Amino acid sequence: MNGSDISSHVTDPARLAALRAVALLDTPTEEAFDRLSRLASRFASAPVALVTLVDSDRQFFKSCVGLPEPWLSSRQTPLSHSFCQYNRVAKQPLIIEDARVHPLFKENLAIRDLKVIAYLGIPLVTSDGYVLGSFCVIDHKPRHWSGHTGNWSGRRKSGRGLRSSCGKGTRC
């Protein structure tokens, strides 16, 4: 996957319309999402867990556990710091054991600024197939996620029901 593939996915008008339809961008934190993030962090023994929504020029954190400042307060990063935008690759979990040596991610600014080294992300997919973001965990050191991927992979479809109604009748 090259940069133009990702850019066309991120800026796809139909995907952005689906993202706006769930009405979660720039909304306050919600305990239900934060509880899921805390559980994911504990389950994976990872210091960071996020529920992200990928907009055309940024990723918004509907929930964030373990992020450093200023990211924790702003609840967003530019796409230059996003691994989550790549979750559309196969619409399955994106597993990165050491981003510092991964050809696609080694230059990502999240490594330097957020200490993202290992990443396990599950795409949040609408019933129409649009990938809106990710439910992910992050570690600050290299990780072999094999003990966790089976459990997360089996729950991929449950990511669609993070909220029984994400807004305006659209399930995410």
**What's the pLDDT, averaged over the residues?**
85
Helical segment tally?
6
SSE order in H/E notation?
HHHEEHEEHEEH
User: What best-fitting shape do the alpha-carbon axes yield?
Assistant: globular
Domain count: the total is 1
- Note the beta-strand portion: 15-25%
Give the name of the CATH superfamily. GAF domain
* The first-level CATH class name: Alpha Beta
Structural class: alpha+beta
Distance between the termini: 24 Å
CATH topology, by name, is Beta-Lactamase
Report the uncertain regions.
150-172
Helix content: 25-40%
Number of strands: 6
CATH architecture label name: 2-Layer Sandwich
- Give the neighbour order of strands across the main sheet: 3-2-1-6-5-4
Q: Oligomerization state of this entry?
A: single chain
Radius of gyration: 15 Å
Would you write up a description of this structure?
This protein is of the alpha+beta class. It has a single domain (3-161), classed as GAF domain (Beta-Lactamase, 2-Layer Sandwich). The protein has helices at 3-10, 13-21, 31-44, 71-74, 109-114, 146-153, and strands at residues 48-54, 58-65, 76-78, 94-96, 118-125, 131-139. The longest helix is centred in the first third of the chain and has 14 residues, at 31-44. Mean pLDDT is 85; it is low at 150-172.
